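Section 5: illustrative case.
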């Protein structure tokens, strides 16, 4: 796995924390609020890149 940006690292940490606390991942909006991003499309772009790099897996049946 390649090195990721600070913003993506924060997104990844937030996702891990939420899964550990709640048992399921946060919404795109919740991720944006947690890391200071207002645009859900920007968050979505970060999630796509994290998936491409192998840091996360996303369910293709979920939006």
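Designed sequence:
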């Amino acid at each position: 796995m390649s090195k990721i940006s600070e913003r993506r690292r924060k997104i990844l940490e937030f996702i891990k924390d939420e899964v550990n606390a709640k048992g399921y991942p946060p919404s795109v909006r919740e991720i944006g609020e947690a890391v200071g991003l207002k645009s859900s499309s920007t968050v979505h772009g970060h999630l796509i890149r994290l998936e491409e790099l192998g840091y996360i897996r996303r369910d293709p049946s979920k939006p």
